[in-house]
Specification:
This protein is an alpha+beta fold. The chain has 11 helices and 9 strands.
Length: 340
């Protein structure tokens, strides 16, 4: 997988992709095809197809090496999700249907998962809402048996390894000399709080955002993007929710109803991870030698430090939750996602 960049300027048309799909999926007769997703700035050329039997399909072809690696990892994960595992989930997951070589890579065809994407700020919340359905969906993922992940050769992390991975990010960010001392102290105290890190690792999707969820009639119908499937800290799948306080409260309540109170510090660790995303954005900027990204990250870190200045009263710890306005993290998370 050493390809650099495929000819982005020569986007593959939906008709070209439809023709490829018929080669990838035996017996597929395409009755209609249309482009799927953004045509500009996307890592994939994609089309949605309708077969003569009325079934729908998605075909995606990567435009660069990063997208190709993501697609390959996603495919490994989807294949590990057996029919038995899928029956434990209250939503649909894409199913691999076929593949076909194209240029220096391959196009993948999946069975279409029905539903529409809803932006986080537009999530309904409260009992019986989309936010509650999201919390229930995440809890279902975390309730899956971990054995199938290990059997597929995917990463299996202990609680200690999850902590050490975070400390590595913290140390690297500290070495830049650009993180406010107040934030470093806040994060270091969280990392040193033993009670915070007493949890049982679970199956995690690993890359959940609002865009991961498809819904219909206020219920999650599908979850997309499984390239980071592993056994890890369940809090990582919950951190993105903190960008919207009412949605987070509803989702966490629904999550707790399914998972119980065994992991009492999951929300605190989610906050820790959410804040550490800003440090990752800084590191991304330094790695890319991008003054623009570094300056943006420094501004975000300064704003975050200002919002949690009363750290003595609001630590990220096992005793109390921070009472900062977590919706202030929204801009941080939105921009930090670019580093992924």
């Amino acid at each position: 997988m050493g390809w650099a960049t495929y000819p982005v300027g020569m986007a593959r048309s939906h008709l070209t992709l439809a023709a490829l799909a018929t080669s990838a999926v035996p017996g597929l007769e395409v009755a209609a095809a249309s482009s799927f997703g953004a045509s500009q700035g996307s890592d994939f050329d994609a089309a949605i197809l309708t077969g003569r039997d009325g079934r729908h399909w998605i075909i995606r072809a990567p435009r660069n090496a990063r997208a190709e690696a993501e697609q390959s990892a996603d495919l490994v994960a989807l294949r590990s999700l057996s029919a038995g595992v899928r029956t434990r989930l209250p939503f649909a997951v894409s199913t691999f249907a076929g593949q076909v070589p194209i240029d220096s890579t391959r196009a993948i065809v999946y069975e279409f998962v029905y539903g529409t994407k809803v932006q986080l700020h537009a999530f309904s919340y409260g009992e019986g809402s989309l936010a509650a359905s999201v919390g229930t969906a995440i809890a279902a993922i975390h309730s899956l048996p971990t054995s199938f992940v290990a059997d597929a050769g995917l990463p299996v992390m202990t609680a200690g390894e999850c902590l050490r991975a975070s400390v590595t990010v913290l140390d690297r960010a500290s070495a830049t000399g650009l993180v406010p001392a107040a934030l470093l102290g806040r994060w270091e105290r969280a990392a040193e709080d033993a009670k915070l890190w007493q949890f049982q690792p679970t199956v995690t999707n690993g890359s959940l955002t609002a865009d991961s969820f498809l819904s219909a009639d206020g219920v999650v119908t599908g979850v997309l993007g499984w390239q980071d499937l592993r056994v890890s800290d369940p809090a990582r799948d919950l951190q993105w929710l903190l960008a919207n306080s009412p949605v987070a409260e509803t989702a966490f309540d629904a999550y707790a109803r399914v998972r119980g109170a065994g992991d009492r510090q999951v929300k605190q660790r989610a906050m820790f991870y959410a804040e550490l995303e800003v440090a990752k954005w800084l590191l991304h900027g330094t790695e890319q030698r991008s003054t623009e990204i570094v300056d943006d990250a420094v501004g975000m870190l300064t704003a975050l430090a200002d919002s949690v200045h009363n750290d003595v009263m609001n630590p990220i710890g096992a005793q109390t939750m921070p009472t900062m306005a977590v919706d202030e993290v929204e801009a941080f998370l939105a921009r930090a996602e670019k580093a992924v």
